[in-house]
Design a protein that fits this description.
The structure is a homodimer of 201-residue chains. Chain A is 12% helix and 30% strand. With 201 residues, the first copy, chain A, is α+β, with helices and mostly antiparallel strands. In chain A, the strands form two sheets. The first copy, chain A, has a six-stranded antiparallel β-sheet, with helices on one face. In chain A, strands 2-9-4-7 form a four-stranded antiparallel β-sheet, covered by helices on one side. The radius of gyration of chain A is 16 Å and the shape is globular. Chain A binds chain B through residues 47, 51-54, 56-57, 60-63, 73-76, 93-95, 98, 100-101, 104, 130-132, 134, 144, 146-152, and chain B through 47, 51-54, 56-57, 60-63, 73-76, 93-95, 98, 100-101, 104, 130-132, 134, 144, 146-152.
Amino acid sequence: MAEVELITVPARRGRAARLNAGQAIKIVNTHGSQVVDFWAFSAEDLTEFLSMEHLRATLQRILPHAGDALVTNRRRTILQFEEDTSPGMHDTLMAACDVYRYALLGCTAYHDNCTDNLHAALRQIGLAAPECPAPLNLWMNIPVGQSGRTEWGEPLSKPGDYVVLRAAMNCIAVMSTCPQDILPINGAACTPAEVHYRILS
Amino acid sequence: MAEVELITVPARRGRAARLNAGQAIKIVNTHGSQVVDFWAFSAEDLTEFLSMEHLRATLQRILPHAGDALVTNRRRTILQFEEDTSPGMHDTLMAACDVYRYALLGCTAYHDNCTDNLHAALRQIGLAAPECPAPLNLWMNIPVGQSGRTEWGEPLSKPGDYVVLRAAMNCIAVMSTCPQDILPINGAACTPAEVHYRILS
């Protein structure tokens, strides 16, 4: 498996990467407790994208596991979830954070957020997202209780844990290192950190 | 509470209704086991709409209950969930059915579906949806097990059960009587049925 350059997604920022069908992206939780909001769009038509509500219906499960096909809003496989070295707690339920979220949490100044990071990351490669789909929140630990109540847990991952997602179609992968520093969603220290990724051919 | 005309949403079809802030919509599960995919869009800007992923984050719960504020993708209250005579099993997890879903279930001819019903219902009142948001699936019974596995349950509602949703902003409410007749999501008979609604001032 040929590995190319290791690329940094700085803390609190977004990055987009083009994947050809057959290539994979390896996303490394370098410091161990950073949530990465993840999206994928068809390179041919950005209105087709990885969709959490279609994924749950297809898997008949809230959480995707390594081995699962990840599907779009047209129920086609966009990525194969090949590897996961973490305990497998990711999240499909929660929206990307946004300026509205931080305003409700008491922020009066602008706060970095995953929704704006998605749009900025795509603009950086000359594209525009038609919307902000519900993200696959890698390593975000949202336990669901019996009554359907959810909690904002700390990640169960450790430094160096990674996932490998292999493209089933030409697509654009987008990552945001979640800038949440008010709730302990990125660990008890509430300190967003950088992560790294590689494109694998 | 002034009640106006009782309006039918035929089986397998969609209808849209304009609500002014302060008005409410009462949706009646006339025959008792019909799932209604429900959406709401801001009348001023259709890119703001009731959003399941933002709702779950706000409620910190998978299911909304009577008494809850239902929020948009800008985390503003669009509707107040005022009344629910059913046991309260609705669904926020599953995508609206679509042609891709029915193709995967083996249909070779066109099958009515909630996604197309949304778009047709809005066109009928001169509007266009910017996308098909994840719906609030009224009376759709999706039990979630401890491992996060989901089931396609039959509705727990009975004939005449209703919900009342009161508009917190001028909005467009859209309903689709889910045409699913392959899985027992609309009851064991797999027979989609009409429902009715009223606008309450």
